[in-house]
TrEMBL record:
Record carries keyword ATP-binding: no
Keyword Electron transport: no
Key words, A-Z: Ligase
SUPFAM superfamilies from the UniProt entry: CofE-like (SSF144010)
Pfam families linked to this entry: F420_ligase (PF01996)
InterPro entries given in the database record: F420-0_gamma-glut_ligase-dom
Domain Coenzyme F420:L-glutamate ligase-like: residue ranges: 12-382
Highest taxon of source: Bacteria
Source species: Halarsenatibacter silvermanii
Name the UniProt record assigns to this protein: F420-0:Gamma-glutamyl ligase
Amino acid sequence: MNLDYVGVSAFGLKLGAITPEVDLKTEIMDLLVRCEQDGLLDDGDVLCVTESVLARSQNNYVTVDDVVEELHEEHGINENYNLLVQFPITSRNRFSAILKAFARAVKNGKVIIQQSYPRDEVGNLVVDGDLEEGHAYNYEELKGSQDLDFNHPVTGINYLEFYQDIINEEMAEHEIYLCNDPGRLVDEDIDAVIISSIHTRRRDKLQVIERAKKLDKFIEVMDLTCICNSEENSSWGLLGSNLSAGEKIKLAPGKPFEFSSQLKKSIKEKFDREIEIIVYGDGAYKDPETGIYELADPVTSFGFTSGLEDRMRRGNKYKYLVDKYAGEGYEQEEIERMIKEEKVETEDEGTTPRKAKDLIASLADLISGSADEGTPMVLVKDFLS
């Protein structure tokens, strides 16, 4: 497709239902034959494949009982433990099955949830009302207050009650605290800590370990990447996982860089096109109405080809340059030529460089949509030109 009046564009590509027995690469190549026939494929395009279809085609699932077994056998957690689960995001899709596994693993003990406030890590409102910073609030002492609202402004769900019910269903005891200090609850009677945050997990884990050392407490401290982590399944472990049917949990895809590289090679061999590949997850954008940050995955791009490595999106502030040069007396054609030929002063180059793969993955996620529009692949054109 060579239209000189069209800039960056993105096309959602429809793919059939992808199940574990489907050869995903073959399905993609068959669809790209149609794209080539319709003149849609060009050198420099970026083909984005959502992580969910890759993981599904790999049958990359674990069950709640698989998680329980690993916690018992590999991490030394037993049914009588008091387990501190720290900073989970408030999400049915992302955390309900994981919490069920944690509660089942300590069914004769207790699950203590430490929830950040007033929002979780990705911006979901946990509590609406005035709570002072720097405290550890027991939810049981707060929930009767007329001045506090624990219902999510969009879903209407009280996630603290929702998580409490999950723990109760597994017969474990529960406590829920609102507290933003990672080391604060280490003082309590706990046997192990699972850091459940996404982007702050390393910092949170370090603070928990430092606090435990200061108290001379020997406790198991892990984050979600430590659980169900294998080279074949997912190097991210439970981080970036999603709720599936029944008691199954879909993990992030295994070997996404290898898949991306192989797909790029196949496209080159069949179509003689140099096309980059991204295996994408959540986009890195924030809802201006709710304040929710969409990136509940650890990264926007689980895998990508070498042509995107360290590639930055740079450019000039087009609207600023037009105003500037028009004010200096240049005519329209002269301004267009100067900008096109990059004959601009260094200090006028105003956009903050950003990683191309993150921007492209975010664009792809906006096109495909969390509600799944049946377009798990997105072809992005003219972004890298």
